[in-house]
Amino acid sequence: MPDTSLSSPFHAGEQLTQTRVGVRDEIEQRAQTTIRDFMPDQHRAFFEMLPFVLVGTTDGEGRPWASIVTGQPGFVTTPDEKTIQIAASLLVGDPLNETLEAGADVGLLGIQLETRRRNRLTGIIQSVAPDGRADGITIALSQSFGNCPKYIQTRTVQMPSSAEAGGAAPNVVTSDRFDEQARALITAADTLFIATTYRGDGNDASNGADVSHRGGKPGFVHIENDRTFVLPNFAGNNYFNTIGNIVMNPRAGFLFVDFDRGDLLYMTGHAEIVWNGPAVEAIGGAERLIRFRAEEIFQVSNSLGLTFQFGGFSPSLKRTGTWPET
């Protein structure tokens, strides 16, 4: 049985997955020093220089959503090692407009694409102030840890100038199916973000919301029908935060970003883990698969407002495959 004592930084689903793949003791020992209940100074400095962060929340029905918040570097601040504040106006159509409330679980991912650095944290929303205030979203930290640079494609990002900021107004389309535009974005993606959540009994720091990055060669996400896609789970840090959450709560939210056009594709639905079988074996580097079935989709055009320039694919992708290659 998994050790669900408060001394472990992992909840039962994460521990069960670690045991299943034979890394439980090793990862527990490592995580005792790498998963903290505070932000080291370098993590605080890192978040404060970012022009965007990813946010994972749940709505009133308990459905996870992955979101993105942007701002001039410095829009994220850390008043102390256990508090993080985000001052930004939320994007049109972003689920955060409905999910932000005091007392809610939240996951945060800071990722600097040009250097492949990323840090994650989980916490509880303490307060939500009007858009643009310095203390707009205040988060009390539960866990903080760094992630390896695997599978991150390099991209440089620039904030728009004041002259460029007044482009076409965002347009929001809601659906429960993938239309042609959504299918094109999903099948061409080399980067996506996934939100998951698990809230067990008590206030264990290992519980809560999470948002994570996934990367692969274009074609690493395969659409099975107009509501379902599947993607490989490549070797990572063996914490199994995302997989462990899905084991305990088979719901997930995805965010796909069109880095050229600034379009965003948000979706929430149900997820399952495909642990083995011919489909897993068919994809180079895959250790398991995540299959997702969408329930609600928000497709927002002209949304992001940031300019991205592609740099290069992660060297880690040399050992990975795509669905067209099968």
Describe this structure in words.
The protein has 326 residues and is of the alpha+beta class. It has helices spanning 12-20, 24-34, 41-48, 96-99, 180-188, 241-248, 278-282; strands at residues 52-58, 64-70, 76-80, 83-86, 105-112, 117-128, 137-147, 154-158, 171-175, 191-198, 208-215, 222-223, 228-234, 251-257, 264-274, 286-301, 307-312. The model is unreliable at 1-6 (pLDDT under 50). The strands form 3 sheets. Strands 9, 10, 11, 12, 13, 14, 15 and 16 form an 8-stranded antiparallel sheet that branches. Strands 2-1-5-6-7-4-3 form a 7-stranded antiparallel sheet, with helices on one face. The protein has a two-stranded antiparallel ribbon with strand order 8-17. Strand 12 (222-223) and strand 13 form a beta hairpin. Helices cover 17% and strands 40% of the residues. The chain has 7 helices and 17 strands. The protein has one domain (12-319): Electron Transport, Fmn-binding Protein, Chain A (Pnp Oxidase, Chain A, Roll).
